[in-house]
Design goal:
Blueprint lengths: L1 H8 L5 H17 L7 H29 L7 H10 L1 H19 L4 H26 L4 H25 L1
Helix pairs in contact: 2-3, 2-5, 2-6, 2-7, 3-4, 3-5, 5-6, 6-7
Length: 164
């Protein structure tokens, strides 16, 4: 069951989309103060932002292909791009789920935002760890990979500190 969940979350076709989704929502939540909005406001704004990033990414891919003259715009081309970039929504679902779980457990809105933010940071570290293990990295390489994930996560935390 854990393997199926991992395979759903990080699809073989577009794993970078999952990483991008985690980072985008992490950065968005870092900008969130958590002091004036409600749980629902935060959840809805983050979900709408994730959907807009998903649509924008798919649209940019399709338009980029069309600008290079590769193919005309068709419903099939657009649907394939939307399907490919659905991985972004999968990644965004990690911090959004953390936000919902914190809300459901009765956490204050600011605490729920922080829980979601930290879930994004932890996800980046875990993704690096999994990538390192899958690539049969040496212990030194694994340390480097985890350090890169921690650096990216730290960037999200620094954004929160700078904005608040």
């Amino acid at each position: 069951m854990l393997r199926r969940a991992a395979d759903w979350l990080v699809p073989a076709e577009n794993p970078s989309g999952v990483v991008y989704g985690v980072m985008v929502i992490g950065a968005l939540l870092a900008a969130e103060s958590g002091r004036h909005e409600t749980h629902l406001d935060t959840l809805l704004s983050a979900a709408v932002a994730a959907a807009l990033y998903w649509l924008a990414h798919a649209y940019a891919s399709v338009l980029g292909e069309r600008l290079s003259g590769a193919e005309p715009l068709t419903a099939g081309v657009l649907l394939r791009a939307l399907g490919h970039d659905w991985a972004l929504i999968r990644g965004a679902s990690i911090p959004l789920l953390a936000l919902v779980l914190a809300w459901a457990s009765g956490a204050a809105q600011e605490t729920a935002v922080n829980a979601a933010l930290w879930s994004a940071v932890a996800s980046l570290v875990v993704f690096e760890l999994v990538a390192g293990i899958r690539s049969r990295a040496t212990p030194g390489e694994l340390v480097l990979e985890v350090a890169v994930g921690m650096t990216m996560g730290t960037g999200i935390i620094v954004l929160k500190i700078v904005l608040h």
